[in-house]
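A sample follows:
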Amino acid sequence: MPSPDHSSSTPAELSSADVSRIIEMAWEDRTPFEAILRTYGLAEPAVIRLMRANLKSGSFRLWRARVTGRATKHTALRSSDVDRAYCPTQYKQSHGR
């Protein structure tokens, strides 16, 4: 079975809650693009397209400037001292509620 093309997912296939969460994850400094790929199936180019489509142009430019070259946004560039993407108490997880 061929591997799925993660970069082809479109925002139309995502709920508004998913889009909101992806935007939140993309803005977070310590959440790598690989975590978005694992959770939502969107590779970095698709995340960039989603951000461009959903942010004001100035906000998009600020975000791109912030994440470009940031080691914490790419698992391969991270220090081995960083062993998790987020604080376990940071997220509003439902845990079956």
Remarks:
- Confidence is low (pLDDT under 50) at residues 1-6.
- The longest helix spans residues 16-27.
- The helical segments are 16-27, 33-40, 44-54, 57-67.
- The two ends are 36 Å apart (CA to CA).
